[in-house]
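Assess the record.
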Amino acid sequence: MLTIGPFQFDVPFVQAALSGYSDLAMRRQARRHGCPYTINEVVLDKMVIEKGKKQRRILCVAEDDHPVGGQLMGDDPEQFGPAAAAMAQSGYDIIDINFGCPVKKVLGRCRGGFHLSQPRIALDIIRRVYDAIGKTHPVTVKMRRGMDDSPESECNFFEILDGAYEIGVSAVTVHGRTVRQRYIGPSHWPFLAKVKQHIGHRTMLGSGDLFSAKDCLRMMEETGVDGVTIARGCIGHPWIFQDCIALYQGKPLPAPPSILMQREAIAQHFIDAVEVHGKALACRIMRKFGIKYAEHHPLACDVRDAFVKVKSPQDFQAVLDRWYAPTVDWPATVRKDGHGDLVAAGATSSV
């Protein structure tokens, strides 16, 4: 059982905060497929504090979106406390602090992963957030394993890690790449094992290179982490959560989603996106999701190209009618195995 503060989850699989992706519509998809805890896309502390349309959108938490984490990022320690308090008051159940974003623009503004190079300021931020909400809401931290592979960077990492737990954070998520790596090269799982051994019984989640259920279970087995946060591996692939749950419970891996299952999931995702963003913006947002959903279709390239051309709700429906017709005798569907390779898994026709 994964424990984060007062929250206990029967399965240890979390949807990570994903910039530009993990909005309410995506989080609902994850929950429908078994994910017990999701995190909203990262937001800047100043956007939470400054009044306006963005603030109202960020602070609007749906009744069916619990438990949900709100992830904060910024450069000014003084703004983190008020921002965390506002998010907690608006309905976020857990507040997560982002010390992991490796995007060049973010680092240039001394945000995200940049804080791993300055332990004193990083711990000041954590302390301010904890002082603001720690008595009523769990505080968690997302980190990478350091700015780079230097001994100094590793020392900074452990100074922040130990200080965070001393302040009172409920859990830390560690990504196995450095900030300088960004998303290049493998996630270094042995480092996760080293960190878990160092912290003992304290709650730690692992992240990095989790693209299948087998990846997720293997990370837990090899590193000893208490749970995993799935990021890019769940974009357009909400079925990864039900796959994880099956393997975790000792059951066979479910069959890949049929064409009908894919159609129903994509159609519902679009409905939720329209509710959250309106029709025009939903169409633009769903193009990038469609590209990822298309990877599970036996004719992935054709379907991807069709989603790219979507400009209206009618276009979107046309893609579903053309490429997800349940009466068509589609070729065998495919699934990514534990190595990221595509493997056939039976016919997809639902009739």
Notes: The two ends are 39 Å apart (CA to CA). The first helix runs from residue 24 to 32. The CA atoms of residues 263 and 324 lie 6 Å apart.
